[in-house]
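Ligand-bound model needed. cytidine-5'-triphosphate.
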Amino acid sequence: ALAAVEQGDLHGRRIVVTAGGTREPLDPVRYLGNRSSGRQGVAIARAAARRGATVTLIAANLETAAPSEVELVPVSTAAELREAAVALAAEADVVIMAAAVADYRPAAISEGKIKKDEQGDELSLRLVRNPDILKELAEKRAEGRLVVGFAAETEPDRDALLALARKKLDAKGCDFLVVNVVGWDRGFASHDNEIIVLDRGGDIVAEASGSKMSVADRILDAIG
Ligand code: CTP
Ligand code: CA
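Prediction:
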């Protein structure tokens, strides 16, 4: 007799994960960036693939290796990430926005390198807002599809943190919000993570801390 092939609980699901941090160019050699390593998003992509899902990872400037078992879509700017996410979300059961998307980009990109001689002792940058990708994905999502957001917050007080997160959840309109406590020595660059998952109504459906891989599994459990 044939042995039953073990299928993971996410078998047949198509999941899109965004990870990393966008870079917004200033000139041909410089950019504005952030400290996201992409490790939590990559861990979610890897965990989902191990559980049988078909995973596409939209990867913005990862500082960690991407898993070989996922389809990789490399991007750099918020505009590129938006284009890839909107296109791929149309075919996905779940989109998980773990990427740190730049809120602003330089209003103009200098064609040549910005030179000190032309700037003097001070340089002001004019920035303009980037579109909110998570909000757009939540607005466009079809019936039965899930959109999961992340919230990186530096608020140390738990109640204040939850209040901020619930406000963000309402503003975004996503199905779940993974609240991530970040700071100079937590969250972004570290290998461990501490998260709280809120559902659409703002109720806590999971809390986890530990390795980004164990946290990834808890997040996937919570969104079902
Ligand atoms: N996000 C997005 N598009 C943006 C900014 C953020 O899709 N232009 C997504 C992130 O990927 C994350 C969620 O929105 O899933 C929350 O990001 P966060 O930076 O915590 O919230 P913001 O809405 O940008 O608010 P702020 O940074 O002012 O706290
Ligand atoms: Ca932001």
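The mean pLDDT is 94.
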